[in-house]
Amino acid sequence: MINQTFQTLKELPTPLGESQCVLHKHELIICGGFGQKACYSYHTTKNKYKFICKYPSNVQLEAHCVVKLIDNNKDSNQITLLSFGGSKYTKRHTFVMKYVSVWNNISNKSNEFNNYNQWVPFTDNHNHPIIIGRDNDNYWGMRAVVGGSNSNLLFITYFINYISVFNLNIFQFIKHDTLPTRNYIQFHCFVSNSENGQGQEMMKKIKKKINKSIKCCCLTRIQDYQLI
Description:
InterPro entries: Gal_Oxase/kelch_b-propeller, Kelch-typ_b-propeller. This protein has 228 residues and is mainly beta. The protein has one domain (60-227). Helices cover 4% and strands 40% of the residues. The protein contains two helices and 15 strands. It has helices spanning 106-109, 198-203; strands at 20-24, 27-33, 36-43, 48-54, 65-69, 78-85, 93-100, 120-121, 138-147, 153-159, 162-167, 172-178, 189-192, 216-219, 224-227. It is globular and about 45 Å long. It starts with 19 loop residues before the first strand and ends with a strand.
């Protein structure tokens, strides 16, 4: 009897390892991989891929991270992606992409979308490039989530057992700390399970304790830890 639990899907146009994916409506946005700069959109109902773009030629992708930022304009037709990574051994990068679905014809017809669907440097309010990560931070295999009462905080967990909080509004780190684990934090699972309303009260104590700023779950190889 054939096992129908899993369905075989269409293969990627380019094999990708250590890739990062973001879900957007019926699309799985696949953002590069180890040594591969191509980005694709996989349509979950059509079972088809479409090419989006490539990372800039000078970017070295090694176990990077891509997260979806929270836009205040509430335009459901577009999202903003943040890609960052690197270490003291590989060149760091921090890019953003304003994404409009490649399955929607509007992305091909309007000049309004000329600057969409391409990776551009992450900049501050004065157009100065911002690189997320300190000189000795090893972001190889790190994981990040966006949270906070205003969805403006980037929580980064990375090797060996560190966690940092980067404020996306002021373009600065506001906290560095360690996780209570003896296991290495690398290529792990890190997700936010905050509920609406809970974050506002917890964010009042962000400068006092990092584990009061957002409710997260970090799964390591042996144990899992919850920041509450």
